[in-house]
Amino acid sequence: MDRLGELNDGTPSVKVGPKNPLSPALVFGLDSKLFLKGSEEAASWAAIGAEGAHTDEVETRSVWRGGAKPGKKHEHKGEACAECAAGEDMVVDEKVVPIPRAELEAALAKVGREVYRVKGIVRFPADSKLGYETYVLNWAFGRHTLTRIEGLDDAAHLAGVGIRLTVMGEQWEVRQRAKRFAEVLGAQVA
Predict the structure, then answer these.
(1) In terms of pLDDT, which residue wins out, 90 or 145?
(2) Range list of β-strands (E), 54-142
(3) Structure confidence by residue, pLDDT tens digits, 14-66
(4) Closest by Cα among 58, 64, 69 to 168
(5) How many CB atoms lie within 10 A of CB 122?
(6) Of 73, 79, 109, 186, which sits 20 to 30 A from 85 (CA to CA)?
(7) What local confidence, expressed as pLDDT, does residue 164 receive?
(8) Within 13 Å, how many C-alpha atoms sit on residue 121's CB side?
(9) How far is 99 from 163, CA to CA, in rounded Å?
């Protein structure tokens, strides 16, 4: 712990063990700037991700091919909606166009150090009744894992989806990197 503190004294450290397990809220919502704030804010995990939270250090972009545009869905209150009129929430094509695994891995190799994480759903061609298999991609700093999730092969909310990824990284750099990444994959960016 002392050596880690010497390497980077500005990063908070959390001791965990059998009697003090790591909280998922801490792992998935950690914002290092939060520890610099007063105890009233640090005590409130609701501040993470809420309006006015200190998440300016990481930017995210969606990269997708096929299916509905990723993002927050909205509700209608009896009014005409320009987004729906433009078809932005509609499934573009119900036919899944899977991506070859080698093509995805080549694109990931070119992501760049400004990107910290790439996570999401990828469908690879397969000799199955659907013609593809669904995997969860978890890429971080040049390494990745692909986990087969058979239950997502015919999930209704993924109709038409070939790729649906979230790209996370350095503020002001991710948009450009995600755009290049999407171009290589024949995908779109949101």
Answers:
(1) 145
(2) 58-65, 115-125, 132-140
(3) 777 777 777 666 665 555 554 454 445 445 545 544 444 445 678 899 999 98
(4) 58
(5) 23
(6) 186
(7) 94
(8) 27
(9) 8
Which amino acid is residue 89, in one-letter code?
D
Total residues found in the chain within this entry: 190
Nearest one of 143, 153, 157, 178 to 98, comparing CA atoms = 153
Q: Which two tokens stand for residue 20?
A: 């003090």
User: What residues contact residue 102 under an 8 Å CB cut-off, 6+ apart?
Assistant: none
Sheet holding 132-140, edge to edge: 143-148, 132-140, 115-125, 163-170, 58-65, 188-189
Give the pairing of strands 58-65 and 188-189.
Answer: antiparallel
Beta-carbon contacts of 163 under 8 Å, excluding residues fewer than 6 positions away, are 63, 64, 65, 66, 99, 104, 120, 121, 122, 123, 185, 187
Nearest to 120 by CA among 177, 166, 151: 166
* Structural domains present in the chain: 2-47 (no CATH), 58-189 (3.30.1220)
**2: its two tokens:** 């002392």
* pLDDT value of position 84: 55
The CA distance from 186 to 188, in Å, is 7
User: Which tokens sit at 23?
Assistant: 């909280």
